[in-house]
Amino acid sequence: MIENKKFNISELVSNYGCFDLQFRKDTRHKRTGSPTYYRWNTQFVITSPKEKIELLNKIGNELKCGKTNISKDQARFSVQKIDDIKEKIIPYFRKNQLSGKKKGDFNLWQKAVEIIYLNKGKSLLNWKRNEFLQLLEIHKSAIKYKEKPRQSKWIEDATNLSKTLKS
């Protein structure tokens, strides 16, 4: 983490942050028939060694949203609520520019957030096909900005689901 420098969230995020877009599959095993649900999910994350948790708490206080926790040797600050992302995180980084790859990643991610926000509360089956396809394209395009891109488990399911949506 950055030591002995002025507290600068944009600089920290450019180095240690993540703008995450995922297509998720959730199976409700406790419900009759174990129904499966699919959804798009966004989150904003900053990680650090657990000794730096106070810095992450300071970021949460500054942004007025998110949660900080520790898992093993890592502290993690994350914002997952779509309203907080739309109303606090995106305006913050529009005002406080990021640099390098993180700037390109943010620009794509904020487009995805807009689409997900517009469809908040709707079943995926009621989404416009072109918006769903835009998210697939954003997800694919964002890989070039990721330091350690992970294989997306459910993207094939998302692609198949997109074929059933109305234009």
Summarize the structure.
Helices cover 44% and strands 22% of the residues. With 167 residues, it is α+β, with helices and mostly antiparallel strands.
Spell out the key features of this protein.
167 residues, 44% helix, four-stranded antiparallel β-sheet, globular, Endonuclease I-creI, alpha+beta
Notes on the structure:
The structure is a single chain. With 167 residues, the protein is of the alpha+beta class. The protein has a single domain, classed as Roll (Endonuclease I-creI). It is 44% helix and 22% strand. It has helices spanning 9-16, 53-63, 82-95, 100-118, 129-142, 155-162; strands at residues 17-27, 36-49, 67-71, 74-79. Residues 17-113 form the Homing endonuclease LAGLIDADG domain. It comes from Candidatus Staskawiczbacteria bacterium RIFOXYD1_FULL_32_13.
Topology diagram in text:
Blueprint: H1 9-16, E1 17-27, E2 36-49, H2 53-63, E3 67-71, E4 74-79, H3 82-95, H4 100-118, H5 129-142, H6 155-162
Antiparallel strand pairs: 1-2, 2-4, 3-4
Helix pairs in contact: 3-4, 4-5, 5-6
Class by SSE composition: alpha+beta
Using the coordinates shown, work out and report the CATH topology. Answer: Endonuclease I-creI
Number of strands: 4
What would CATH call the architecture?
A: Roll
Report the total helices. 6
CATH class: Alpha Beta
Oligomeric grouping of the chains: single chain
Distance between the termini: 47 Å
What percentage of amino acids are in beta strands? 15-25%
How do the helices and strands follow one another from N- to C-terminus?
A: HEEHEEHHHH
Strand order of the largest sheet: 1-2-4-3
Biggest sheet record:
4 strands, antiparallel
Low-confidence stretches: none
- Tell me the helix content: 40-55%
CATH evolutionary superfamily: Homing endonucleases
> How many domains?
1
Protein name: Homing endonuclease LAGLIDADG domain-containing protein
Pfam families: LAGLIDADG_1
GO molecular function, one term: endonuclease activity
Domain Homing endonuclease LAGLIDADG: 17-113
